[in-house]
Design goal:
Blueprint: E1 6-10, H1 14-26, E2 30-34, H2 37-46, E3 50-53, H3 62-71, E4 78-82, H4 87-95, E5 100-103, H5 108-132, E6 135-138, E7 141-144, E8 149-152, E9 155-157, H6 161-171, E10 178-179, H7 180-188, H8 198-213, E11 220-223, E12 227-230
Parallel strand pairs: 1-2, 1-3, 3-4, 4-5
Antiparallel strand pairs: 6-7, 7-8, 8-9, 10-12, 11-12
Length: 237
């Protein structure tokens, strides 16, 4: 995985949080500072590629965040960073599904090296997972990344390559609003110099094919003044 990966820093100590921000930004990561357990859980579910998790967070503590993520089957790499150096805390954290455990005070350079190693392993695991389960299912809608097909009730919906790429980007971030700029960069490429409203045209085509022709309930939602969001396709009424 590239070093531009998003690393959520769930740490309520501002000095440590700023230290981690500085070192991660210098290494080319996209750090996301977080100060409480609920925000850590949301970030791990939706946007982060890796979670640096302090145990003593307000709201949900780190152990509860970790327990919830693993109970939900989420495989995001988690590095527990804590002042609790007792062996029992390390054992509990690792048994609950932490991928690594770092005690304060720590070496920022060593921590960054551990993050890079975990992301490399995570990236290889994601490739294997894609090979094993390449189909995303949302009710009657299936999006098969390996075959580059969208199917409704097992019947293929005829999508052009850009339409499929746009749908894939949206369903991969189900429930998250994505800006037009983000969609352009991910689907058309950073060097695209056309009108960003081309996104609107492609969304209209997707809606026509999925909702009008195939009969799915509306699932491609407009976020006014921002972009678009995918909500799991439900059966039409």
């Amino acid at each position: 995985m590239a070093s531009s990966a998003t690393v959520a820093i769930a740490e309520d100590d501002p000095a440590i949080r700023e230290l981690l921000l500085h070192h991660l930004e210098r290494e080319g990561f996209a750090p996301l500072p977080i100060t409480d357990g609920l925000a850590a859980l949301r970030a791990a579910r939706n946007v982060a590629d890796l979670l640096l998790l302090d145990i003593g967070l307000p709201g949900l503590d780190g152990f509860e965040v970790l327990r919830t993520l693993r109970r939900e089957g989420r495989a995001i790499p988690v590095v527990v960073v804590t002042a609790r150096a007792e062996e029992i805390d390390r054992v509990i954290g690792l048994e609950m599904g932490a991928d690594d455990y770092v005690c304060k005070p720590f070496s920022p350079r060593e921590l960054v090296a551990r993050i890079k190693a975990l992301l490399r392993r995570s990236s290889r695991g994601a490739v294997r997972a894609l090979e094993e389960t390449p189909v995303r299912r949302f009710g009657r809608l299936e999006v098969d990344e390996a075959a580059r097909e969208a199917r409704v009730d097992s019947r293929t919906v005829a999508l052009k390559p850009r339409e499929f790429d746009l749908l894939l980007e949206l369903v991969a971030h189900e429930g998250i609003a994505l800006t037009r700029e983000r969609l352009i960069e991910r689907v058309w490429g950073a060097d695209f110099d056309g009108d960003e409203r081309t996104i609107d045209v492609h969304v209209r085509r997707l809606r026509a094919k999925l909702e009008e022709e195939a009969g799915l309930a509306p699932s491609l939602q407009t976020v006014r003044g921002y972009g678009y969001r995918f909500r799991g396709a439900l059966p039409a009424t």
